[in-house]
Predict the structure.
Amino acid sequence: MKSCRLTITTVADGRENSIVRDGEMDLSVGKVSVVYREENASVRILLQGEGATVERIGDYSLRLNLRRGEFSTGEIGLGGSSGGIETYAHKIDYAATENSLLLSMHYDLIISGETQKIKLRLLGRYKD
């Protein structure tokens, strides 16, 4: 893992939010890993083939296993309790060079029959 600068843009239910963070990234061929901190959490994204794993640990926990074109079950936890969360991944595309990563994901979070559409765009570049 090497130090990097990340620009992360999310769109949830039509509301866009962008943040810039320092983090760590490993751009190995066939397996890409990104780790960064949010205000109250640590986030890890692992990309491999057509799939992605998103893990968040902090004020709430989240683990999503996404595969393009498939429904899958993840886990969400808050205040000592946890439960399942269904996802459907519409798009998981990424391009990695020797020093940068561009990631675009579109997926649905389905909780108690309600669907929240999420778009995530991440640009990472190793620090010099």
The mean pLDDT is 93. Strands lie at 2-12, 15-28, 31-38, 41-48, 51-58, 61-67, 71-78, 81-96, 100-111, 114-126.
